[in-house]
Amino acid sequence: MISHYNLIIVPVDGSEGSARAAAFAGDLARATNSPIQLLHVYFPSSSEVMGMAQLSREQLEVINQESAAAAFAKAREAIGDAEGLTIEDKAVWGEPREEIVAAAEENDALIVMGRRGLGRVQKLILGSVSDAVLRTVRRPVTLVG
């Protein structure tokens, strides 16, 4: 089968929305023979950053990897049987919209993401990550409800 996408990027945060997006991306990847990148963007709140001030770089990386591992596990469970699929896990620090958009544009990728994630109260004021991605990315996006 011909691949339609260089890559399908699925931003994951451990929420039900990102799990549904991962399941959809798995089906799409099977149909198009496209690889998947599960992308976890660790973006601590300002209070979390204050609590991390005395931690070493290694300790911060452990926190990031633990957060990412839980999100990746939930996404892989939602995808189900991964036989024949190429799935890469990628964990980064940063502002979610910026990291998702940069990854998609760098890789000529399709983004498949949930409409609602594990938001904070501030996201109600500032708008959701999916909305911000839709407004700024120049790559195709599929939102999964």
Automatic annotation (TrEMBL):
Entry superkingdom: Bacteria
Every UspA domain range: 5-144
A Pfam short name: Usp
Stored CDD domains: USP-like
Membership in a protein family: Belongs to the universal stress protein A family.
Protein name per UniProt: UspA domain-containing protein
Organism: Thiocapsa imhoffii
